[in-house]
Amino acid sequence: MRYVRYAILGGLGLVLISVSLANRGAVTLNLVPEALSGLLGGSHAITLPLFVVVLGGIATGVILGFVWEWLREHKHRREIGAKGREVRRLEREVGRLKDERHGDKDEVLAILDSTG
Prior knowledge:
5 helices; 2 strands; transmembrane helix; LapA family protein; coiled coil; mainly alpha; LapA_dom; single chain
């Protein structure tokens, strides 16, 4: 299974390198519309290779998606934490009750006593 994952990642890497080499042409990326650029003064444009713009957009989308999901799942993580604390509290209580009931008995006798 590990080799399949490496093969897929290697293939994806080759595709990304191939696309990057094929799209090395420079493009001008306007950060502000031209109408607003006159109001703000100065030029708000950068020239980048096309593959940087495309791969940067993909990376930005993936990062925003991860952050969105992390924020959306916060309530589930909080609930799991609360349930875990409750389980630990109940385990301590069960242990305390067993000690109270079978404090000085042997373990085997305590098990036999609890089953019958």
